[in-house]
Specification:
14 strands; 12% helix; 1 helix; five-stranded antiparallel β-sheet; mainly beta
């Protein structure tokens, strides 16, 4: 390899490393629910629903624990997920009850909010225990202990209900 190919390989490695270390941007896919088909059967304009589908970003697995004995427990790790729930807007025009009145629109909105979740996991203790002197240095056998690591979801929603003119 000549000097030019070494420099090109170094630039490629630097570009890949910077791309791997860059923070992942959470991009939401916008969703508009088409409800215009309800207008012929409703005595008013159809409501509108606008939201987005969040993109969960997985983190590093957690839950690898050392066992009580010399061997580690076998564990199915819990994986943390971070995401941002999209802004949601539901608007429904109110029907005209009195001739010439403009009642406005009923709206329910929820701003963007950060959510953190952790997937469930499992742990299985080893059936082999540390070697003992009374068994001539052979490991002891026992019943493995099985456990389930519970999932978790943390976040705060702040929905708002109101009337718009």
């Amino acid at each position: 390899m000549n000097l030019r190919s070494h420099a090109g390989l170094g630039l490629l490695a630097a570009a890949l490393a910077s791309a791997a270390l860059a923070p992942v941007a959470s991009a939401d896919a916008p969703v508009v629910v088409p409800l215009q088909g309800l207008e012929p059967v409703l005595p008013m304009d159809a409501p509108s629903i606008e939201t987005g589908v969040p993109t969960p970003i997985p983190g590093a697995p957690t839950g690898f624990h050392e066992g009580v004995g010399a061997l580690p427990d076998l564990t199915l790790p819990r994986i943390p997920l971070d995401s941002t729930l999209s802004e949601t807007d539901i608007a429904a025009p109110l029907p005209e009850l009195l001739k010439g009145s403009e009642p406005g629109t009923a709206e329910v909105t929820s701003p963007r909010s950060e959510m953190k979740a952790v997937t469930p996991g499992a742990t299985v203790g080893n059936a082999l225990h540390t070697p003992q002197a009374d068994t001539f240095g052979l490991p002891g056998l026992g019943v493995p202990e099985v456990g389930v690591l519970t999932p978790a979801l943390n976040g705060a929603l702040d929905p708002q209900l109101g009337l718009a003119p």
